[in-house]
Structures are given as structure tokens and as C-alpha cells.
Amino acid sequence: MNTASPVPSDEVDPASVRIVLVGCGAIGWEVATGVYAHPTGGRYRLVAAVDPYPDRADAVGALLGIPAFASLAEVLAAGIEFDAVDQRLPHHLHADAAVEVLTAGRHVLVEKPLATSIADAARMVAASDRGGVVAAVAENYPHLSAVKAARHAIAAGRAGAIRALRTTRAYTLGGVWVRDGWRTGTGPSAGIMLDQGTHHTSLLRQLGGEITAVAAQHSTAPEDAGDGAVETVLLTVRFASGLLAHSLYSWGAAALADEVEATVFGSKARIDVRVSYEADLGHAHCFDARAPQGTAISPPENYYDSHRLMVDDWVAAITEERRPLVTFADAAADLAVVFAAAASLRHGGDFVEVAEIAKG
Ligand SMILES: NC(=O)c1ccc[n+]([C@@H]2O[C@H](COP(=O)([O-])OP(=O)(O)OC[C@H]3O[C@@H](n4cnc5c(N)ncnc54)[C@H](O)[C@@H]3O)[C@@H](O)[C@H]2O)c1
Questions:
Q1: From the CB of residue 63, how many other CB atoms can be counted at a distance below 10 Å?
Q2: Is residue 150, in this structure, part of any structural domain at all?
Q3: Residue 24 C-alpha to ligand 1 middle, in angstroms?
Q4: Which of 56, 147, 153, 344 has its CA at 20 to 30 Å from residue 206's CA atom?
Q5: Is residue 282 situated within a structural domain?
């Protein structure tokens, strides 16, 4: 991520989309420094920063030379003009905040997971369907070059017949990600499935199509019992095509600099989707008869660079009056799979039909 000084204001197009950043915590700061300090082509600009922690809002305000507030209501009361709101809030706050912005006729970008209940997701989708505003979700995986390359290779037949998929998200939660405490424990925003499950559901749906059923089991090893920062879940996922996938989620596991987060097992080739959070080591790698040692089929990338792609896509959707790459309906479909997995966990690990859960 680029953390250099922001662009001088005379390089910003005055007709650019005016955005309020709501939530200046871990990822809010990341996008402020990595994206909004250098808006692509001057097509957008932050006009206010909002966080109830004054030091967090002030830090973004000082970085970008914009006013800081404790709430969106204060921004409105101050008469700040804006077109759109970028929300980087804890999970249980997404629904009310997004519906409020859409109802006021402004564009919104919401973090994943879309919501913490199927009912909340449904009212968000309904609010996004009213037209005239763009509602997008900051779901990274459809934006990653490695995922796009793997998807393209599958569609082009390079892997042959697809026999199975596998995904892995294993790392140790710490630092700013546990600072406010809501990710772990038993609260409405907590748990690895809510935090990472929609990401890997999105990844799986990019590679394998619609998911119809899921079976899930928690590790019950004594070492996995704790404050919620240690958690391991195994999913078996069934796609509409009949294809199967395995997904492993673990908090408390040693992380790799570049993890093979997805593998496509094809009759002609195997494709790995490598994701890197610390360096430009992410890419898709294809192993086949021509190159048994494997060959890169996408350029090197850092996962966090996809945050620029998501903001750029959202802004382009606003200015071009088109759909964003990840709509609220797409994210609601990801969420339904996660809630089907949660239902399976409660019911002994049997397969649960996603359509049943999506009805609410
Ligand atoms: N897509 C990704 O790569 C990625 C990465 C990390 C986090 N996230 C998502 O981003 C969201 C935020 O995660 P985080 O780790 O930055 O959390 P965080 O707790 O660090 O930040 C959230 C911020 O929201 C603020 N906040 C709470 N209520 C508010 C309100 N009413 N108005 C304005 N601000 C308010 C909090 O004070 C806090 O500073 C979550 O949905 C998370 O899943 C996505």
C-alpha cells in the first residue's frame, strides 16, 4: 500500500465524486492511506472522516486535510456536501448504516460480510434495488488478478474437467484486528465464518459457480477452546453442477507469506491461487503436462491492492451509471452460504440447503 503524502489538491478534478469515510479503524486507515491519499485519476476525493474515536477520525482528517466528525449526523449538520459514503464498520453496524445512506439517495460502499442476518441482508438488497444509487460491497476476491486468471483458465478449458476445489484460510488473528474486540467472543459480529467465510464463499463461487448446500464441522480439540481468537472449521461445499469443494478456516495457525488459498483440481491441470497480504507474491500458478513445475498465469499482486480496485470500480459504476462488480445481491448470496454453514454446525454437521437458509 502507498503511504506517501496525499496528492496536492490542484490535481483533484473538482467534478470528482465526494466521499465520506465512515469508520477510521484498521481497514478505514488502510484505505485512507493506500487509496484516498492518491485517488485514481482524481476521480474521487474524501471530504470528511467519521469515527466516534476522535483520534482515529482526526488522523485521517490530518492526513488528507479534511474535517473529522464523530458521526454522519454531524457531517450533515455541518453542511458538508457529499455524494457517497464508504463504510468501514464492525459487521453488526453495516445494515442500518447502509440502508440509511441509500434511503437518503446517496451511493454506498459496504465492507464484507454484508450483514449479520439474512433479514438484514434482504432489507439491504431491497434498499439497493430502488435505483439511482450504486451500492457496492468491498469483497476483494472477484477483484484479484489471480482469481480472474484461474476463472478464465477454467472457462477456457485449460484445466480440463474440474474434479474438485479446495480453499484454505489459516492464520493468526492479532494486532489491530483484535484491538476493539468485536471479531472474537460471542457477539453478533464475531467468528471466523462471518469474518472470513464470505470471502472464501465469494472465491469458491468465482471458481465453481453457485453453491447449493454446505456441511460444516468445528474442531473440538481442547487447544481450540478459548476466547474465539482460536477457531478451526471445516466445510464441505456442494455446487449446483454437482462439484464438491473442501474449505478449511483456522484462526491460531501460523500464516505463510503467500498462501495457496484455492486449488482447482482439473483432469488436465491443477491451478493454485496464491494470495499474499505482506508482499507482491500473490498470483495464479498452473501445473500441467507442458509445465509440470508450474507457470504463473497472472501478474504478482498484494491482496491489499485490491482495495483500490474496489473503490475505483464503485466510483466508475457511479459515474458510468452501471452495476459494480460486487452488488449487495452477490454479497447476500455469499452470506447465505455462511449462514447455511452455521446451521450445519448447530445440527451436527449435516448438509444444509442454501436456498432454505436464504428464505430467512
Ligand atoms: N476486505 C478486507 O480486506 C477487509 C480487511 C479488514 C477488515 N474488513 C472489514 O472492514 C470492517 C471494519 O473492520 P476493521 O478491522 O477495520 O474494524 P475496526 O474495529 O478496526 O474499525 C471499525 C471502526 O468503526 C468505528 N465505528 C463504530 N461505530 C461507528 C459509527 N457509528 N460511525 C462511524 N464509525 C464507527 C469504530 O470506532 C472503529 O474505529 C469489517 O466489516 C471487516 O470485516 C475487510
A1: 19
A2: yes
A3: 7
A4: 344
A5: yes
pLDDT tens track for 14-37: 779 999 999 999 999 999 999 999
The alpha carbon of 311 and the centre of ligand 1 are apart by a number of angstroms equal to 16
The percent of residues in the chain predicted with pLDDT above 90, rounded, is 91
- State the distance from the centre of ligand 1 to the C-alpha of 81, rounded, in angstroms: 23
What average pLDDT does this structure show over 120-148?
97
Report how many domains make up the chain: 2
Residue nearest atom 39 of ligand 1, based on CA coordinates: 25
Average pLDDT of 38-59? 97
- Looking at the fold, whether 85 and 158 belong to one and the same domain comes out as no
166 and 271 both lie in a single domain: yes
Q: Edge-to-edge strand order for the sheet containing 135-138?
A: 68-69, 44-50, 17-22, 84-87, 107-111, 135-138
Q: φ, ψ for residue 120 (rounded to 5)?
A: -65, -40
Which of the listed residues 20, 51, 140, 178 should we mutate to test ligand 1's pocket, taking the one with most ligand atoms within 8 A of CB?
51
Q: Do the domain assignments include residue 161?
A: yes
Q: Do residues 28 and 73 share a domain?
A: yes
Residues 245 and 151 in one domain: yes
Task: Assess if residue 344 is contained within a domain.
Answer: yes
CATH code, domain with 59: 3.40.50.720
At 276, which amino acid appears? S
Q: What is the mean pLDDT of residues 239-258?
A: 96
Residue 1 pLDDT? 38
The predicted structure's pLDDT at residue 2: 38
Tell me how far the alpha carbon of residue 154 lies from the centroid of ligand 1, in angstroms.
35
Would the CB of 88 count as within 6 Å of ligand 1? yes
Q: Which of 24, 89, 200 to mutate to test the pocket of ligand 1 (most atoms within 8 A of CB)?
A: 89
Dmax (CA) for the chain in angstroms is 65
Q: What separation in Å is there between the alpha carbon of 348 and the centre of ligand 1?
A: 32
